[in-house]
Amino acid sequence: MSWIDYMEMAAKHSRGSAKHWFRYLRKDIDKCGILFSKQDLEALYQKDVLTPFQRVTLKAAFEDGTATRQHIMDLNRTVNRNKIMEVRRRHEHNK
């Protein structure tokens, strides 16, 4: 399966769910440049399978400095376990 075929499947699968779409984009951003070329990205952008939302976020996801790109990069960062435990302790204490 080519990268474009995979992303077409992802677009269909995540239609109506921004959360799922960003998960697919997150995987591509994490491996940026390995799975596809700029021509592949342009070809995918032209596909009818993409919704207007998916087109806009696809373009923004691969442009440095956009809020969409930053959001996806934040999804790729691991969460500090100590911070999670601290929030959990506060929540349990406030019950």
Weakly predicted, low-confidence segments: none
Structural class call reads: mainly alpha
Radius of gyration: 17 Å
Distance between the termini: 50 Å
Order of helices and strands: HHHHHH
Quaternary form = single chain
Domains counted in the coordinates: how many? 1
Tell me how many strands there are.
0
Helix content: 55-70%
The number of distinct helices, counting runs of at least 4 residues, comes to: 6
Shape annotation: elongated
Q: Beta-strand percentage? A: under 5%
Q: Sheet with the most strands?
A: none
Mean pLDDT: 82
Summarize this, please?
The protein is mainly alpha-helical. It is built from 6 helices and no strands.
Could you outline the blueprint of secondary structure elements for this entry?
Blueprint: H1 3-13, H2 18-30, H3 38-45, H4 52-61, H5 67-76, H6 81-93
Written description of the protein model:
The protein is mostly helical and 95 residues long. It has one domain. The chain contains six helices and no strands. The chain has helices spanning 3-13, 18-30, 38-45, 52-61, 67-76, 81-93. Helix 1 runs parallel beside helix 3 (38-45) and helix 2 (18-30) crosses helix 5. The termini are far apart. The relative contact order is 0.13. The mean pLDDT is 82.
Looking at this protein, list some descriptive labels.
95 residues, mainly alpha, 6 helices, 68% helix
